[in-house]
Structure formats: structure tokens, C-alpha cells
Amino acid sequence: MNIKDLIKIYENKKKKFGSKTYRYISSVLKDVKKQHQKDFIGKDHEQSWRSFKGKNLEKLIEYIIADEIHSIGLEIINGNSLERSSSNNLSKELSLVKRNLLVDYGEFGSHLPDVDMIIYNPKNSEVIAVLSSKVTLRERIAQTGYWKFKLLSDEATNHIKVYFITLDEDGTLKTKIPAKKGRAIVETDIDGSYVLSELKIEESEKVKTFDKFIDDLKKSIQTDILKYKC
User: Fold this and answer.
1) Domain count, the chain
2) pTM, full prediction
3) What is the DSSP code (8-state) at residue 179?
4) Structural domain containing residue 70
5) Do the beta carbons of residue 163 and residue 213 sit within 8 Å?
6) In the chain, is it the N or the C terminus that has fewer CB atoms within a 10 Å radius of its CB?
7) Collapsing DSSP states into helix, strand and coil, what is residue 230?
8) How far apart, in whole angstroms, are the C-alpha atoms of residue 79 and residue 102?
9) Is the separation of the CB atoms in 76 and 118 below 8 Å?
10) Residue 191 belongs to domain with CATH number
11) Residue pLDDT, tens place only, 67-117
12) pLDDT tens track for 205-221
């Protein structure tokens, strides 16, 4: 079982649900889990499945949005591919992307933020946005807020948008008021979170369904362009 199998099941769902398929990613993963269990050899299937699910959710999201990212003249790359590669092994374009995303810790060096996907402009390697994707918020939302703070603290990186994409399987984002801790972090500390779910959520400027992500990204780019002109 691999990402190709996951994409195949997603594409079959897409034939039925079209642009609303994002709502059924949890259902897609349930179908994949059944096959994953059949193929599994070992003692702890749940642990193996959690690892597979988390790792491949980000790959599936990247697959879903890649075409639209390209259609607006941008590129998307997996964060691990920059983290694990030395600058000597990267193209000039990606080496500059890496440099443009580094967080300066003074005498303790410069380090990349922990993010799953990076959206950048291939014309100048400027980083436009970074994305983290997890099944639930509790897995990384506070860390995502921390990286937003660090990026904001430097003139070279303070324009970078920080987004979180999630299945929200524990319902952390479902209600705005009263807000759970994860929702409060999203509303105050990052640029937005987008939910892949059949469940209804109370939307706001910062919390929306996944289908609104690309439009919001386009708007943020236009806003930045106008800001620079002023």
C-alpha cells in the first residue's frame, strides 16, 4: 500500500463527488486502512497505520492542490526534501528557496521551520506560504503557531503565510465560541486553517472548509502585491 493506491481511491471518489471530494478524505482513508490491514505483516497494525496515514495525508493534499498552485504560476515542494538535502545537492532555485525560509537563531545557527509543504514563486524563489497538514490539530497546531511567530520576527520572512490543513477528526475547529485551545491558536496565531471534513464547522476569517484555500491564497498574494506598490 502506498501513495499511488491512496490517490487511485481518491480519484474514484472524485468521479462521484467532484469538487466536494475534499469532504470525504476521512472516508478515503478508511477504505485505504482496510487494504493496508490486509497487506500488513507484523504485530501492531494501528501504530503502522497511524504512521502511514500521517505521512501520506500530506502527500495527498499536495497532489490535490498542485495543479491549482501551478495554474497561478507558483510551485509547491515537500518540506522534507529541503530539510534533508544540503544546499550543494539542490538546484539554484531550491537552494534559494531554502535560504529564503531559514530562521536565524544567532549563535545557534539557522534552521528551517518544521512544515510539510512550501509554496514559492519559481521566478525569484520567494517563499509565499508554508503548510502543515495533520489528522488532528493537537498533533502540531501549537508548533505551527510558534513558527509563524519566528517567521514574523524577521523582515526577510515576515511576509510568509502560515496555514494548517486538517481532517479535524476530533472536532477541535467545529465551534468558534466557546473555542477549544486549538481553535484559539488558529484564530490568533496563524494565517488560517482549512478543514477536509463532512462535518459542518462554524467558519470564520481564519477557519474555513478546504475548498476555499486556493481562493484565499490568491487574495493574499494580490494583497501583498498592492502593499508593495504602496
Assistant:
1) 1
2) 0.91
3) P
4) 3-229
5) yes
6) C
7) coil
8) 12
9) yes
10) 3.40.50
11) 999 999 999 999 988 887 776 788 999 999 999 999 999 999 999 999 999
12) 999 999 999 999 999 88
